[in-house]
Amino acid sequence: MSERDSLAASPLTGHAEALLLFRRAHESGRLHHGWMIHGEPGIGKTSFAFACARLLLGGTDPQSRAGRQITAGTHPNLLLITRHMDEKRKRMRQEIVIDDVRPVQDFLHHTAADGAWRVVIVDAAEALNRNAANALLKLLEEPPTDTIFFLTCPAPSALLPTIRSRCRLLGLDPLSDEETRQVLSRHGRAADSLPALVAQAQGAPGRVLASDQSTDDAARQLAQALLEGRTVIEPDTLAGLLRHDDGFAVLCSLLGEGLANRARQLAGQGKLTEASKAAEAFASLQALQRETERFNLDKNQAVRQAAAIASAP
């Protein structure tokens, strides 16, 4: 089972206040039809969405019938929308395309089993391309009865304003060190490595879990240099990065994480103009990645464009 596939099965660690907020909204009888779950990469946004789905579908007990179905991915009232394999290139797409969203229509045309909620989770909604985003927007504009949408993304600015305006925003805070330790232990990280990994995670254990799976050290070194304002890209560094099929995607992910962190830090310091520029850079980077992958553009040039976006003041 991959890290992503295990999200439905893993218990939620942390985020107790956010879950309580959602639970109270549910109990009030005035539950909003669209929720945008946002927070830095690796913080547990999708795990949180699944926890909310378990609450709505009566599957909080993993041993119950509904609980087992959610874990197995077979619950008739739950649909996960995410990126899929590009069969031509034999690798994971970097964007969610219209074909990935079309199953929602069939899903919503069926009456919910047992008269319960229907739940749609859009994982990494920032990866929606324009057509997919517009298709989702139409569903959010006229939401079917007893249907809840959860969209996960690093920052609300990563999505269309029209989509944001139709969702209730719910931000997740970083996990504590102890919560981070629990997540890493559950995913098999050795006890003697935990202190260093917890420090590296900075409250987002998924960041460590993802980095363990990446063999592209060049992307990490280059991202750090660009975020520090060093704009010269050595030819050997660029060649090393693009030697891997996912090198450009990894670089964009790391740069996006850095820009999102920068925007939050600047906003926290009251530097709203600078924070807005960092958020705009994040959105530009996301657009560059989508267009590069969609049209198979020259990644050498795309890396240099990404560098200009990330290193701009």
Automatic annotation (TrEMBL):
It holds the Pfam family DNA_pol3_delta2. Residues 31-175 form the AAA+ ATPase domain. InterPro entries: AAA+_ATPase, DNA_Rep/Repair_Clamp_Loader, P-loop_NTPase. This is DNA polymerase III subunit delta. It comes from Asaia krungthepensis NRIC 0535.
